Every structure is written in C-alpha cells, then in structure tokens.
Amino acid sequence: MEMKELVYLVTLAEEESISRAAERLYMAQSSLSQFLHQFESELGTKLFVRTSKGITPTYSGKCFIDHASEILLEYQRAKNQLWDNENLAAGKVILGISSFRGRRMLPKVLKKFQEIYPKIKVEVVEAHSMKLEELLLEGKLDIAIVAMPVTKLKSNVETLKKDEILLAANKDHPITEKMHQIKDTDNYWISLKEAAEYKMIMSGYDTILGSFSRKMFTEQKLKFKADHNDISAAMAVSMAREGLGLAFTYQSCAEEYDDIRYLRIGEKGVFLDLGIAYPADEYQSKGARELEKVIREVYTNNEYFAMS
What we know:
Elements: H1 3-15, H2 18-25, H3 29-43, E1 48-51, E2 54-57, H4 59-85, E3 91-97, H5 99-116, E4 120-126, H6 129-137, E5 143-147, E6 157-170, E7 180-181, E8 188-190, H7 192-195, E9 199-201, H8 208-219, E10 225-228, H9 233-241, E11 246-250, E12 260-265, E13 270-277, H10 286-301
Parallel strand pairs: 3-4, 3-5, 8-12, 9-10, 9-11
Antiparallel strand pairs: 1-2, 5-13, 6-11, 6-12, 6-13, 7-8
Helix pairs in contact: 1-2, 1-4, 2-3, 5-10
C-alpha cells in the first residue's frame, strides 16, 4: 500500500462522490473508480456503498478510513519534524484562511514568505472560520487565521488584530440619507435600528459573520428583513453594490469601489478579533511559526481600507 492510496480513500470519504474526489485529486474519474474497485477486491470487502447521490462509507470502511486518516496525519507530523531538523531547507505549511479575507492580505503574505523561504511550499485551504476550526481539530491544518471568539478550539489561539464589522451599501441606497458623520473624519456611522428598516443580505448561520450579525439584532431586540439568509460574505457585498440590500462585512475585507459605501455600526463601532490558531495540542512546526511572523508583520504594516 502507498501513501497516495490512503489519500485517495480519505478524499473519497470526505467528498462522498467519485467525480468530486477525482476533480480534487486532479485525476480522471475512471482512474479513481478503477482504483477503488481494485482496492476493494484486494481487501475482499466493500469500503463504500454506491447510491444514486454518490458513495457512503460502510461501517468497516469508516473504521479503515479513520485509521488511514491517522496514518496520514502522523506521516505529516513526521515530515514536519524532519524539515525542522533540516533547518527549513525544505517543507510544506498548510495555511487555513477564509477566501473572502484572504483575497486582500494573503498574496502579500505569500510573496514575502516565499522571498524568505523559497524552498517551503505554503498550501492554502479556504474555508469560513468555523470550518477552519474543525480542520484544525482534525489536524489537517498547520496554522489558520480565524475570526474570534473561537467556538470549538480550547487553546493555541492568539490575537492577531482587531477587525471592525461594517455595513456595505450602494452609494445611492436610501440609508445614506440617514448616516451620521464621524467627528473629524470623512467616514460615517448608522445605528443598527436605522439599518433594520431596510432589507438585509445575511451570511449563513454557520459563519462567524452570520451568527455575530444576528446576535447584534437579538441583543438590541430588533427584527430584520432579509430575502437572502445564506449568502457568502463576498457575494453579499456584491449584491449590496447593486442596491439589493445592506450587507455585513469586515473592514479587513473591504475593497474600494466607486459605487459602494462602508458604514460603521453605531457611533463607537462593533469589533471582533482576528486570531492565529494552531492545531490543539499538536506539534507546531518551525515553518508554521515562521509563517506566523510574516502574517503578523504584513497585517501590522498594512492599514485596512478606510470606510468611505
């Protein structure tokens, strides 16, 4: 048995689809299907049940794949320690970040890290913060940038930077007639009560932004109107640009456009922390720690885009 075969099995279990797994593995669907057939024949038992919707691990298959996952994780830990012993002369770091947040800051981080450590590959995994926590707990990431407070991690999370939650609106949206100027600035704020008079575009319940924004309405005993309740943060802002409603976003993700305005929520603003997280109780590689240094430097030296 080869390590790549374990990777195939774990990917099949995660995707629950031969076609999606093949796409993720950059191989032909027929080749992956043939591998699975031959592998099951060699074991003398079925690892997956074929259904009209895809594939599902059998009980025995799940037990086998759980062991395969552990083997792969231990193999990755062994490689990390080997690369550390070679003083970062080679290696790989798996970084988790949300695609929305990473779009602005990640290219700068990767460029600077590559200049310092050209022989270390950074593999990027994109997911929202709650999913990134799950991947950290499963040991599938070496380091991640997550929105705080974390909900599942108990340790190995340190604050990176404060981030402000803003409202994005088309510059011709009626709410701009009610906004208030922030003293000594060119920026504006709006109360959540005033915002609640208009249609909102909400991110999913399983995201930090979606859960946090709903919590704000609940705490102020306000009701909101929304035709869209499970929209990605990036798509929500794009819809707000078209005047379809108001969308919550992070200041660290705010990009300048001629047709959009970013408004502070309340006169003092609403903030949460960004954090850098490691797998709980796992070995922290030198490569991951060096990447953290670069992340902190880039986030410290690059000011966020102004609200308006």
